[in-house]
Amino acid sequence: MQDAKHIRRQRLKLILIFAIFAAPMVAAWGMVEFRIGIPDQHTAHGKVDLELPVLNEWPLALSNEPGLDGPELSRLGLNEPGLNELGSTETRSAVNGQEEWILAFDCTQQCEQRKDEFWRLHRALGREAPRLIRLRIGGDSEPLPGEMTSEWRHFPPWREDNSVWLLDPMGRPALSFEANVATKYVLDDIRHLLKVNPQ
After folding, report:
1. How far is CA 140 from its chain centroid?
2. Nearest partner of 134 among 80, 88, 186, judged by Cα
3. Residues with Cβ within 8 Å of residue 139, at least 6 apart in sequence
4. Average pLDDT, stretch 17-41?
């Protein structure tokens, strides 16, 4: 009688040990299967737009601003439409191995406010700021420090007023942001991308 009770107790202990180790796996399976505790929305505020062409294919004209023609914008590979001076479709920043991401923004409306917001965003990156280039497209005013300017030769069909695009060092679009996305969310996405893509 005592032996049977002891055996049952030992079996119960063994079953409890198995249950303790199996419970987290069963709970994880249930969370995935029934979408419990998993956010329904994505955390990035920008969207990946596979229809956007690489930067060298954008219909951009070199700016007439002093100091922002030729050498400065050639870092982006914009000397000739479609090709940089090395005959490659890569942007100049990638060819030099600089790993500079490009924040291009359309500045057709509320340009003063937009360019100031993105200047502040650039400064907020701190030590990561040298990894980002700001390219303002449109607007008449003088460029802010660290800003390159250009103009649309013609408006492409994918362009929307005051849109923002984040391009990787090769000039490929990584994220696009609509005009109504707050600058702090753009900053969050840039910080995340720079963190997961260390230099």
Report:
1. 27
2. 186
3. 107, 108, 111, 114, 115, 149
4. 86
User: In the chain, count of helices (H) and strands (E)?
Assistant: 5, 6
pTM: 0.67
Q: Higher model confidence: residue 37 or residue 22?
A: 22
Gap between the Cα atoms of 169 and 93, Å rounded:
6
DSSP 164: E
The overall longest dimension of the chain from CA atoms, in Å, is 99
DSSP code, position 66: T
Is residue 84 scored above 50 in pLDDT?
A: no
Tell me 54's DSSP state: P
What are the DSSP calls for 101-156, one per residue?
EEEEEE-SSSHHHHHHHHHHHHHHTGGGGGGEEEEEES-SSPPPTTEEEEEESS--
